[in-house]
Amino acid sequence: MDVLDEKTLSELAARVRAYPYPREMVVDVLRAIQERRGWVSDEGVELAAQLLRISPLEVEEVATFYDKIYRRPVGRKVIHLCDSVCCFSRGGEDILKHLEKRLQITLGQTTPDGMFTLLPTCCLGACGQAPAMSVNLRLYGHLTPEAVDRILEEERREVSP
Ligand code: FES
């Protein structure tokens, strides 16, 4: 099974053995799996369940609840645009339209070059900086269309040689 490399698998197994409540490590295990391929396949859910000695359904419940775990392939950079009340009322909808126009995708889609996936998210805890988004968990606030263009450029440059 190519879900995890041997080293990471044995490190996780050791942590699970030493931890009093292994089921609390579900997110840690899913994140480790996600780091390898960028998302968590069905085999990844099975492996997490075996490691943690819980059912695949219990793993799936966490995986689908936690919106930073991806159960489908995503782009190299995942944009989470906040759609909660502060961001929505402070121009979030315009930022969404701008992102969709710039990236030529809609929410839930990935750009054809595999660079960006655009997803909605609930409050990022940055309401004072609304509207806000994160790109691969890096937070950006006080968004304007110009700021979004600059951020996309910088994020794209970071992965291009
Ligand atoms: S409502 Fe958007 S960060 Fe809180």
Describe the structure.
The chain is α+β, with helices and mostly antiparallel strands and 161 residues long. The protein folds into 2 domains: 60 residues, Orthogonal Bundle (Arc Repressor Mutant, subunit A); 83 residues, Glutaredoxin. The chain is 50% helix and 11% strand. The chain has 6 helices and 4 strands; from the N terminus they run ααααβαβββα. The chain has a 4-stranded mixed β-sheet with strand order 2-1-3-4, with helices on one face. Helix 2 packs antiparallel against helix 3 and helix 3 packs across helix 4. Bound molecules: FE2/S2 (inorganic) cluster. The site of FE2/S2 (inorganic) cluster has 11 residues, from helix 5.
Number of domain units: 2
CATH top level label of the largest domain = Alpha Beta
Largest sheet: 4 strands, mixed
CATH superfamily of the largest domain: Glutaredoxin
Write the layout of secondary structure elements.
Blueprint: H1 6-18, H2 26-37, H3 42-52, H4 56-65, E1 77-82, H5 85-103, E2 116-121, E3 133-135, E4 138-140, H6 145-159
Parallel strand pairs: 1-2
Antiparallel strand pairs: 1-3, 3-4
Helix pairs in contact: 2-3, 3-4
The structure holds FE2/S2 (inorganic) cluster.
FE2/S2 (inorganic) cluster binds next to helix 5.
Question: Can you describe this structure in just a few lines?
Answer:
By secondary structure, the protein is of the alpha+beta class.
